Amino acid sequence: MRPEDIPEIRTLDLFQNMSDDTFKVLVRGAYVQNFPPQIDLVEEGDPADFLHIVVGGCVELYANWNGRDTTMAMVRPISTFILAATIKDGPYLMSARTVEKSRVVLLPSNDVRTAFEQDGVFARSVVNELANCYRSVVKNTKNLKLRTSLERLANYISRSQIRAGSLEFDLMMDKRRLASFLGMTPENLSRAIKALRPYGVQVDAAKVTITNLEDLNQLARPDPLIDDFSV
After folding, report:
1. Are 15 and 6 in contact (CB under 8 A)?
2. Which long-range contacts (CB under 8 A, 24 or more apart) does 135-140 make?
3. At which of 93, 127, 143 does a domain end?
4. Which residues of the chain form beta strands (DSSP E)?
5. Which class for 160: exposed (0-12), middle (13-18), buried (19 or more C-beta within 10 A)?
6. How does residue 230 score in pLDDT terms, banded at 50, 70 and 90?
7. Which of 115, 143, 171 is the last residue of a domain?
8. 161-188 pLDDT, tens digit each
9. DSSP-assigned states of every residue in 167-211
10. Band of the pLDDT at 4, cuts 50, 70, 90?
């Protein structure tokens, strides 16, 4: 792994408070790879040999069953996946593939588990990271079960607007993946996009323009216990 990659990884909440000695041992066996788009990185059911860190590009986490697949999450820099499988030494519950050209750090899972056992500060950071992941799963489940497809799309656009800091922005994933992520078919997504027009939302290809944010938020009714992933 290149020395210039190390400071970026060190700034992650997961690693920033662990001891220097433990961190040096952890990254000593790591390596970095560049992947083109649409490359499978891990497959659902395989043993978790590595903890992956996305330092460039974008990775889709997805799952499939009985010939159907669904987008679970989109991972962007700088983020890890899939920590729970690494710590538990269990199989991956999701597959991962690159969406665009991506740069990924691979940390051997055995080294991560050794650091977890030997460094108490790192162990607490792991517990905190897993707790955040669990809370995100609960929020996503509430979003899927308590809201209609139109409300889910409205809240996704509302969150995207906050993230972009502008009333004009691009969708962060293509519409097929967005439909899957929001738990609807592409046809339902198309209808929901049209249904948002009276609320001041125009979607042209990947570009979103909001002309009436107040009306959008009245429809979405964002709730920090569902939509704020910092809580």
Report:
1. no
2. 135/231, 136/229, 139/225, 139/226, 139/227, 139/229
3. 143
4. 31-35, 40-42, 50-56, 59-65, 68-75, 79-81, 95-98, 102-108, 168-170, 201-204, 207-210
5. middle
6. confident
7. 143
8. 999 999 999 999 999 999 999 999 999 9
9. SEEE-SS-HHHHHHHTTS-HHHHHHHHHHTGGGTEEEETTEEEES
10. confident
Render pLDDT for 22-74 as a digit per residue (tens, 0 to 9). 999 999 889 899 999 999 999 999 999 999 999 999 999 999 999 999 999 99
Would you say the C-alpha torsion 157, 161, 166, 167 has a positive or negative sign? Answer: positive
Pull the structure tokens for residue 116: 């977890």
Number of domains in the chain: 2
**Three-state secondary-structure class, residue 27:** helix
Round the average pLDDT of the chain to a whole number and report it. 94
Is 228 part of any domain? no
Same domain, 78 and 191: no
Q: What number is the average pLDDT over the span 74-92?
A: 95
